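ok so for the tutorial part 2 we go from a plain amino acid sequence to predicted structure tokens. step 1 is just haveing the sequence, like this:
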Amino acid sequence: MKKNVLITGGTGFIGRRLTDLLLSKGFTVSILSRNKRTNKAGIFYYIWDIEKQTIEKEAVLNADYIVHLAGENIAGERWTIKRKEAIVASRELSIALIHSVLKQNNKKLEGFISASAIGIYGAFNGQEICSESTVPASDFLGKTCQIWEAAADTIGSLGIRTVKVRTGLVLGKNDGFLKKLMPIFKMRLGSGLGSGKQYMPWIYIDDLCEVYLEAIDNSTMIGSYNAAIEDDTTNVVFSKTLAKILGYPIWLPNVPAFLIKMVMGEMSKIVLTGRRVSSNKLEKIGFSFKHKNLEETLKLCVSK
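step 2 — the prediction. this is what the tokens look like for a chain of 304 residues:
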């Protein structure tokens, strides 16, 4: 009998690609959505409402594994107090809802794999290469990721193998991090942001989905793993590489940090700061990134 993977946030950029990968590997997929959808071959949809803490519990009870991707987009809107609360709550309360179904029904999964982010190391610039043992930061990004991971650990307290995937900037065609950048760069108006020296740990969408597949298949995986290419890509390197692929050299000066702060407010930390991260823990278990060259990866993302 085919194993079933329940994906929260399954209709998003990562969830859609992961669904395709899992189907190709012989899994069936269940997806939790806020809206009623029609089942497809191998895909089953269920409804939940995180705010009301309601869920079609069959989604959880029928699952062998859960991949938890749900959560408000951190870069979706300015960080008002209300927006910050929504970002945290969407991560914490969604897991709490799943936890309640698992506990009440004594349901044992073969694995619970939750998204997290390299933001746990904070919105700071520096040369330090952060590993999974690096002390988490106390700023908004750091605290949000700590709450996120602590919520995931409540699933682990039920005796379920739990994995937390600390993700970098996800690159993919027509979506993800590049979606907002491409219109500007295609008009030949691309440039660096702020100092341009901030590091940008990135990962190609296909590699990220393979990380999730590895976390499902590899029963030795437990705890936190950095999912980002360990290189020296800075914002200015990224910008110059993207412009090169589009056929022009960067000719505009970097956008001043104060202008970005005026437009984005506190959220500007996302683009004005960056940490270097190590992927050594993931690679030690035998995982191999297929897309480690930034220029070649960006070519895949902008190809027609």
